[in-house]
Amino acid sequence: MEMRHLHALLKQRHSLGQLEPKGGKLAFVTVPRENLRGLLTELRDVHGFTHLVLLTAVDWMEDGLFQLTYMLNNRGRDMTLGIRVMLDRQEAQGDSIHDLWPTAATYQRELKEMFGIDFPGSPRIDEEFILEGWTDLPPYRRDFDSLAYSQQTYAERPGRVTHDPREYMKSKLYPDGV
Amino acid sequence: MGLREVLTPFTVWKHVFDEPVTIKNPIGRPAADRYRGFHQNDMASCIGCGTCEAICQNAAIDMVPVDGIETRTGDSGLRPQIDYGRCCWCALCVDVCMTGSLTMSNEYTWVDTDPDAFRFVPGLEEPWKDDEEGYEREGKRVLSGIERIHMEEMPPETRISNFEEIVDGYSRAEAILEADRCVECGLCVATCPAHMSIPDYIAAVRDQDYDRGLEILYETNPFSEVCGRVCTHKCETSCAALHEGDPIAIRWLKRHIVDEVPFDRRLELIGKPAAPTGRKVAIIGAGPAGLTAAFDLARAGHGVVVFEALSHAGGMMRYGIPEYRLPYEALDRDIGVIEAMGVEIRTNCRVGRDVTMDALRRDYDSVILAIGLNMGRSTRVPGTEGPGVEKAVDLLRRITDGEEVPVPERLVVIGGGNVAMDIARSMARLQMQKYGRVGVTLTALEDIDHFLADREEIVESREEGVQIFDARGPQEVVRDESGAVTGLRTWRVKSIFDADGRFAPAYDEGDEQIHEGTMVIEAIGQMADTSLLEEALTEALEWNRGRIRIDGAFRTSEPWLFAAGDAVKGPDVINAVADGHRVARTVMDELAAREVMQ
Prior knowledge:
The complex is a heterodimer of chains A (178) and B (598). By secondary structure, chain A is of the alpha+beta class.
């Protein structure tokens, strides 16, 4: 009830998508990029969603989109709202909210490094975060080939042998092919 | 820098005598319950499908043989070996595991000076192999689909009054989703008698490359359109997906490929046969074994003539399997491709009547006997002699030929195999057309869980109104004073085999039933009609329990004569196809050997 009430209230001032409830205390809603800041500010200052739980991204490669998810928590009412913003994957640029929550700067730095999503104006956004000397595609992008990277980057210990189950079964069960 | 920044570091001195929150010696400290530590693998439930190896993004897993683990149906006998120099503990291997055998302990500390110690097969010796704590996925696997994509079928009330095909076939969108569930482990390939390249043609469906799919099918099976509909699909019993869900619909995906390629395109893809060799091979019987051998031999450039006693080619695929399971056009297309390879099929030509074995022996370089099993066996219980008792295969043949068959209002079928279901369901349709209702009772020795018929046959028979009485042994065909059949008397079966495993049904004589009906149809098995061989050849050949003895390469004891298919092996289309390939291979080897000798 409370989530729906809040959603209805917010909808009067912001362009919100459908509410997607996940149980009573957690729900998601998608907003256009230009509505994000206004919505976050109201949630924080008016509705008690003072805690930015996390900021993360999903690579919808086939759709040409990155999804940002801002998880906000109202501690007093034990409610969590996930705000989703879809970005053009080609452009890959979001709007920094470090001035609303200073911790956002760290998340944004991480997203820059792992997904290549830029947040202009975010403190230290271009500094290395955990990957040192990374030269490949940002590794959380789905077109990054983890297996190829690890094969190129890490040496194989000698002496390893593997077997293809299908061929091995043939050699054991019907070696002459019949 | 201000005064505050200078002084702040000194404020921590107030904690100097506090109890430290860090641990002096972290070795031996237990990790959290769900920590992802060294792997555990339940050796008994692991099937060696290698999906863990396929998904590992660090190439940390090898599939290796392990002492004491045998390769068998549905289990490669291989087990994952993990190189912890590469493992990043992401647990994708655990999440993707098809059986749930692979998990992780929460053990993460281990010191050893030998780097090779950190490359081992989990589940053998490690001290943590039975630990409860650690990471395992909750619920069933989610990285590949659990449920089979639904196949649309004609509902029972619509299909019961006609012989139209029941199964719709997948749309492209459905087929892609179903193909997407396959992890391409290939455990099924060993189970398929023809060893079809199942993962490869499923991949072709996923890639929407039907030309490639069709070419793959034809590498191992010229009856893919038939098998895509009626195969006994034992492959699906060794599918890795069945351990936590439905096996992949391998048979339907095969059908889907053939459905998507027009007949003319099929001929183009298969191409022309090799240049003529001048050798000639006679094949007796235009069933799946004979025609598969014909296809292979003709592809290799040999002249092939197939002699068929009945009016159409196809053998049991045409005369045994009802049209609602296998439409004749589908069969005709598969046969059409074989004929396009230059195979001549002489129908209405019965060996022994229209042409002699001696003539075949004289006029051809080799002769392949692929005559199938077309004579129905009888229970020989009292009352089976005389009118009103029929053999299932005879009736099915007459229905296919368009002959009028007697259709009583109530009848009883004896048998629990696919032939019994075929005749029960065919007669049910004819009853529906004639009387507007179904009156078929089916009795079998086996209890319902041990019927030889495919599961879906039993389900669909029941949906169509066939009443099944399992574990009933026929004792007598009951007749009235005039000699007309009135029913079948049965006793309850206590056991079918004796202590030595021999067929010796034991009955509870106190549990007797009379199943009413004015016709009894026996569907308890078939035998080969070997009368075409005639006396001299019958004498000369070696036999094995009433069947012509063959060696592993399908040679009979006569050097010019080979035998394959149900008549010597069995029991289904895909086995006949496999036999057809093998006997063709042997004949070609023999022909090549003779070439060298001359």
